[in-house]
Design goal:
Number of strands of chain B: 3
Distance between the termini of chain A: 26 Å
Largest sheet of chain B: 2 strands, antiparallel
Distance between the termini of chain B: 25 Å
Number of helices of chain B: 0
Strand order of the largest sheet of chain B: 1-2
Oligomer: heterodimer
Strand order of the largest sheet of chain A: 1-2
Structural class of chain B: mainly beta
Strand content of chain A: 25-35%
Number of strands of chain A: 6
Radius of gyration of chain B: 13 Å
Shape of chain A: globular
CATH superfamily of chain A: Glutaredoxin
CATH class of chain A: Alpha Beta
């Protein structure tokens, strides 16, 4: 769990992590429990399925799932960083940390 | 492509596992928000 490891460093930089996936909240609950709990909220974009994921242009129509991606929204509500990741790859947390530091 | 860098992030409200409904704009003026979209698969998040 990459974000869990970086959570305190992101928090120090006044950044709130929100996990989002297109699964039912009960599936999320089972998952977060299996992870021993998470230090940030895990959100369910389930009903209507993938609505928020679609609003962010991250819906994979072919597979009927969302893409893995990280979007950083600054305090003013503006998108400042957007990165999509290929299946099987994980976000580069150092890159994200640097991006957050650049927000001031 | 929606939600490109420099654009206002689409606001939303979604249910969370442990903290009830969360709205993106509740952090406005207070915190940066890192949205981690992931595919649920019981692997690393």
């Amino acid at each position: 769990m990459t974000f869990r490891r970086y959570h305190s460093r992101l928090e120090e930089r006044q950044a709130q992590v929100l996990g989002i996936s297109c699964d039912h909240i009960n599936a999320h609950r089972a998952w977060t429990t299996s992870m021993g709990g998470l230090p940030f909220p895990e959100l369910s974009d389930w009903h209507p399925k993938g609505k928020v994921t679609q609003a962010y242009g991250l819906w994979n129509e072919e597979r009927g799932v969302g893409f893995r991606a990280v979007i950083i929204v600054d305090k003013a509500g503006v998108v400042r960083f957007r990165q999509r990741y290929a299946p099987g790859t994980l976000p580069d947390l150092e890159e994200i940390l640097t991006a957050v530091e650049g927000l001031g | 492509m929606p939600a490109e860098a420099g654009e206002i992030a689409p606001d939303f409200t979604l249910p969370s596992v442990s903290e009830g409904d969360i709205t993106l704009s509740q952090y406005r003026g207070n915190k940066h928000v890192i949205l981690s979209f992931h595919v649920f698969d019981f692997t690393s998040g």
